[in-house]
Known about the structure:
Blueprint: H1 2-19, E1 36-37, E2 43-44, E3 82-87, E4 90-96, E5 102-108, E6 117-120, E7 132-135, E8 141-144, E9 156-157, E10 162-164
Amino acid sequence: MRTTGCVIALVVASAAVALTGCTADDATTPAPTSTVSGPTGVAVRPEPSRYLAILDRPASADDVLPDSTVDAPDDLVPNSQRRAVVQNGTVYWVGASKNGGACLLSWNADPDSTDNWAMCGSTDIRPESIIVSMSGDDGRVVALAPDGFPGGEDLHAIAPNVWVS
């Protein structure tokens, strides 16, 4: 009996040593996630598509930037832009920024138009806040806002995420 007890103890000890340091397969282990709470307690989400549903839309031919467009910002994730709206001859695209923020691109085929620009904005996104905005010499403001933006600041939506004054 003593031999049987020693064998069982040896098997248990061997199994414990063999399993030490083992982890679940990476494919089944969920990736760690983190959110940071801002001053208002609203979680900041590092993936732009989490606060801009348009970025989850599959790409289409309309999403391609024209060759004569304003230079895309270096921060723009290549091919992430989605055409949001056309208003008065100006096309607006929403894109993801490499730092987890978002970009708004504006283009008008008229070479004299002041609507040819692109900007990327913050990763500190809150539902009640503008991500990035541009104001022209005429005082008109164009802004990129997250899904659920309540409006205000004399802005009205021309697309779910594009607001103008």
